[in-house]
Structure formats: structure tokens, C-alpha cells
Fold this sequence. Notes:
Layout: H1 2-60, E1 65-69, H2 72-86, E2 97-99, H3 109-120, E3 126-130, H4 137-148, E4 152-158, H5 162-167, E5 173-177, H6 182-205
Parallel strand pairs: 1-2, 1-3, 3-4, 4-5
Amino acid sequence: MCSLEVFAGAIELAKSIIKPMLDLRIQQHFIDSADLQYQAAETLAKPLDAGVQALMACVTSGGKVLVCGEGSSAALAQYFASLFVGGFERERPELAAIALRHEGLGDPAYASLARQVRALGQAGDVLLLLTTNGEEEGLMRALHAAHERDMTVIALTGKGGGTVAKALHETDVHVGIPHDRAVRIREVQQLALHCLCDGVDAQLMGDQDSVA
């Protein structure tokens, strides 16, 4: 019985130590994320502005946006497409955006995105790429396919942009998140997608006091 009491006491002691540590760990996530966003705001403002202009040129000429990423970035691609089609914070006519996916094509993963770009993309369309390291072969092939179709590419990357950044043309847009940790990069990429959507809405429907 005594040993059980000692064991139970040890568990309670461990909990009393771990809980404050976990609380601090959670707080640190918020601090690190906010710190990166603050530091990146000035750096990313101009490329995001250029991204908005590229999207505006596309949608006002009747074009569409093809969005893609691999792994967790594919979820962000789907998220952007839903906002672009369905609206961001205001009601507006639908804008054309398609999130490309690997499933069901019968192709290797590295080839399927490029096939979809060649099948769906036209001159004047935009390919929006999402990647944390810029090294995925599938995204590289999609990028080259977009250039073959005379499409503009907007690349949201981290870790310097990798081979994706090196393959971009002067008329493309590179939004490079200045960080190496994937989770932090994705957090800022999501904010960047919000900025793109808000910028397009502001251009199409006029400014609104929604930024606070």
C-alpha cells in the first residue's frame, strides 16, 4: 500500500511539473508565430502586392487560378480555392479557382499535377504554388507546365524557396517566408493567402475598414 501511495505521489508531482512546462510551451508557439509574422510583414508586403496584381490581371481577363501543394500544403491550396470561389469576408461574384489534387489520375504523384496544369491551364491563368522547402519534383513539373502554357506563377515558399524559386521567371511572383520551420512557414502562408484574397476583394469592390 505504501508503494502505491509513493507511486501516486510521484505521478502527482510529475503532473505539477509538466503542466506549467506545457503551458509555457503552448504560449511559446503563439509568441514565435506572432514574432515571425511581425518580422515578415514589411518583407512580404511588396511581393504580396505583386501577387494581388497578378491575380487581378487574371480574373479581370476571364482567367482562372490553379492552386497546388503537396502534403499539408495541399490542404492550404484547397483552403485558398474555397475562399477565392466562395468569397473571403464580403459577398461578391464567384472567382474561378481550382485546387489540383493527385488522387484518381493513375499517374505517379510527381507527374499528376503537371498533367492537370497542361489540361486546364491557358495563357493568362495563374498557377499558385504552396511549398515549405521548394524542392518537390511534382511542383517543379507543375511550374514548368505553367510556363509552357504562358501562365504566371505565384510561389509561396519557405527556407529560401529551393529549386522552385530558382525556376521562376521575372514575370512570376515569389513570396518567400523567411523561416526554416515548416509549421511557422505554413502559419504565415495562411495569412499571406488571406492578404491575397483581401487585396483582390479591395481592388474589385473598393476598400473597406475590415483591417484591424
